Amino acid sequence: MHVREMISTHPHVQGSTADALLKCIEECYSCAQTCTSCADACLGEEMVKELTQCIRLNLDCADICAATGAMGSRRTGSNVEVLRAAIQVCAEACRTCGDECAKHAEMHEHCRICADSCRSCEQACRDAMSQVH
Amino acid sequence: MHVREMISTHPHVQGSTADALLKCIEECYSCAQTCTSCADACLGEEMVKELTQCIRLNLDCADICAATGAMGSRRTGSNVEVLRAAIQVCAEACRTCGDECAKHAEMHEHCRICADSCRSCEQACRDAMSQVH
Amino acid sequence: MHVREMISTHPHVQGSTADALLKCIEECYSCAQTCTSCADACLGEEMVKELTQCIRLNLDCADICAATGAMGSRRTGSNVEVLRAAIQVCAEACRTCGDECAKHAEMHEHCRICADSCRSCEQACRDAMSQVH
Amino acid sequence: MHVREMISTHPHVQGSTADALLKCIEECYSCAQTCTSCADACLGEEMVKELTQCIRLNLDCADICAATGAMGSRRTGSNVEVLRAAIQVCAEACRTCGDECAKHAEMHEHCRICADSCRSCEQACRDAMSQVH
């Protein structure tokens, strides 16, 4: 990912990058991929019937992570209130999905990795909140 | 759009459809398209330099509308708190984008249509909030 | 959906709209919603284990429909070869998903509706190919 | 990104990962972010009027990269022909966008980085084609 290079060369940024927001953008794209993968891995399990809530939360989390990563990548003009609200929802979606994945972490390694990815993204979102204002 | 038919045949819904949520899903997909179009139409205008904030808000609005439309379409399991929060952000994004588009509505017909679409989606989001709990 | 109004007011279009492309854009957004819904409805079925391939194809189809609908909505500049290729992939994804959904159409009404939506979108994509050059 | 960990723990993969496809998925998510950033950075430039084609190609490339990255992440069931076609379109979108960005690479550092990212993603897509069958 080239998030830092791209944001630091944006004409409205001029070298002053908000590190916590950069980390948040990276985590959002990464978590979108992890959740998309985890939904599909759960779908491939013999016990898929018991993983349907996990798949649903994975897909919701992937959608909001992708939207938040894109919104956070934009610097032209300003949309602070909406961006803050999106990051907040993203943190909640990550917390919810991470909690569900954690329940299956001992049985399914993909759920363990996804729970970690969700928690890392949740933390990055919470850290970014202080820099977006 | 086949939102009503699809939701009403979902095994967890069994015919009881929340009309305001159906309307909200339709408006989210429609507004995602309208905002994507408006961003591109603004980009094609001679005075694009004065429309960059409008384009930025269009793109943010399209992203959150698409994510919210997809999340609202899911009925398996439950993700009420996250869905409510997403619908709330979507309403805010629509309000912000609609206000900006309204400023250029007299000069650019695509901004006038987009302002209407944003307001319609904002209202549908607010109406859906009472049904998602 | 306001596809026609938006495209017809685009500064690079000036009233001359390609009807088949407009229809294709509408069908892409509609099919993205239908496939997202169908994946989730399949996930809620008792026999989900037998519907995992259907869910996978639904999710793939939703992704490419959403991307193609957005790309088709853009008129500024030109990206004909890429747009044509995307419409072609979208038609193939719709054909594949529609064929799979048709297998479960008698048992699951959501699959019947989704099969119809996929075929309608596939046809709209094929019709649009002659206008995008 | 946790692409390798996620794919290698998928129940249908069982440790045998196609390295070129893993690289392709990573590059698709990365290029989606880079192109989203570059579109916005171009939008912030004084000379935005001369960058509208670049912005349009950036947005198209971001859309198809995001869809292809998600489709490539799925292993349940199979959708080989559609996935191959999507990877092929993605390579073309990256080539087209990379060529345009390269024209502004000397003047805009974000376009130089984006051109590199597009070329890297294009190559990863072409390399993955031999493994997806």
Topology:
The structure is a homotetramer of 133-residue chains.
Chain A: H1 3-8, H2 19-43, H3 52-73, H4 80-103, H5 109-129
Helix pairs in contact in A: 2-3, 2-5, 3-4, 4-5
- Note the beta-strand portion of chain A: under 5%
Structural class of chain A comes to: mainly alpha
Can you count the beta strands of chain A? 0
- Global shape of chain A: elongated
Distance between the termini of chain A: 25 Å
- Integer average pLDDT of chain A: 95
Number of helices in the DSSP assignment of chain A: 5
Largest sheet of chain A: none
- Report Rg of chain A: 16 Å
Considering DSSP H and I runs of 4 or more, what fraction of the residues of chain A is helical?
over 70%
Order of helices and strands of chain A: HHHHH
Oligomeric grouping of the chains: homotetramer
Unreliable residue stretches of chain A: none
Using a beta-carbon cutoff below 8 angstroms, give the protein chain pair with the largest interface and the number of residues from each chain.
Answer: A-D, 39 and 39 residues
Describe the structure in your own words.
Four copies of one chain form a homotetramer. Chain A is mostly helical and 133 residues long. The first copy, chain A, contains five helices and no strands. Chain A has helices spanning 3-8, 19-43, 52-73, 80-103, 109-129. In chain A, helix 2 (19-43) packs antiparallel against helix 3 and helix 3 (52-73) runs antiparallel to helix 4. The first copy, chain A, is elongated and about 50 Å long. The mean pLDDT of chain A is 95. Chains in contact: A-B, A-C, A-D, B-C, B-D, C-D. The B-D interface holds B 39-40, 43-44, 48-49, 52, 55-56, 59 and D 39-40, 43-44, 46, 48-49, 52, 55-56, 59.
